[in-house]
Write a structure and sequence with these properties.
Number of strands: 4
Strand order of the largest sheet: 1-2
CATH topology of the largest domain: Hexokinase, domain 1
Distance between the termini: 30 Å
Strand content: 5-15%
Shape: elongated
Number of domains: 2
Helix content: 40-55%
CATH class of the largest domain: Alpha Beta
Structural class: mainly alpha
Number of helices: 9
Largest sheet: 2 strands, antiparallel
Length: 248
């Protein structure tokens, strides 16, 4: 996003009087490393972080990214099983696992964001889509109550991710304080998870009072930054032309 150079205290290069704005990459996936997100993190978030390949890093990303969404749901399901809320009797609180317990739920990364999206969107009367997904990953004969609870878990985790991502986007849109803002979004969730996308847009609409729109970015953030630079150059060229045509 564009930021006024005066608001960038880490800028170390000589300040060109002609340069008033710079492009900032927020890298907000790393937000929370200093504990700023502890007030909304759960025990599940901490467990996921501690068992990840990058503990104490990318805290915000681990709460909103498709890469971690399924794992959050899996950890919640395991917790519910341990408390005999799901699949009663299949898993004991002790470290020993019953032979008949589904091995997929004890393997990190065995539950995917696609599972979350498909289960959340299940509107069948008997939740057959959810039952089929659970059966496909080895959870045999799940009851209706099991399917219902797991669908609610998927909805909640997905909604939280959408609202957190929306809050971060809304902060930048409001900070820009422009009449109209277009936000380029990439990623699996925005592209394929329709419930997530709707919740993201709905939350931003509540938080942003000015005109804005979200568009799917096909080319990633690097090309996006190049396009922003090109737009800035074009705006400066147009401004210079106007000054020559209508001198003050």
């Amino acid at each position: 996003y564009f930021e006024h150079l005066d608001n960038v205290p880490k800028w170390i290069s000589p300040r060109d009087t002609a340069t008033k704005n710079v492009i900032i990459s927020t890298e907000w996936g790393a937000l929370g490393k200093n504990g700023s997100l502890d007030f909304i993190r759960t025990d599940i978030d901490r467990e996921l972080d501690e068992s990840s390949l990058t503990p104490q890093q990318q805290i915000f990303e681990k709460m909103i990214s498709a890469l971690y969404l399924g794992e959050i749901v899996r950890l919640i399901i395991v917790d519910l099983v341990q408390r005999s809320i799901l699949f009663p009797g299949r898993m004991q609180k002790s470290p020993s696992i019953r032979p008949d317990y589904n091995i997929f739920l004890i393997l990190r990364g065995s539950f995917y964001a696609k599972h979350v999206a498909d289960i959340e969107s299940d509107t069948t009367e008997d939740l057959s889509i959810t039952a089929n997904i659970l059966t496909s990953i080895g959870i045999h004969e799940p009851s209706y109550d099991d399917c219902y609870i797991i669908r609610e878990v998927c909805k909640t985790v997905s909604l939280r991710a959408a609202k957190l991502a929306a809050a971060a986007i809304a902060v930048l849109i409001n900070r820009l304080n422009m009449p109209s803002v277009t936000v380029a979004v990439d990623g699996t969730l925005f592209r394929h998870h329709q419930k997530f996308k709707k919740n993201l847009i709905r939350t931003i609409d509540r938080l942003v009072p000015r005109t804005h729109r979200l568009v799917l970015s096909e080319d990633g953030s690097s090309k996006g930054s190049a396009l922003v630079a090109a737009v800035d150059r074009r705006l400066k060229t147009a401004s210079t032309t106007l000054e020559k045509t209508f001198p003050s």
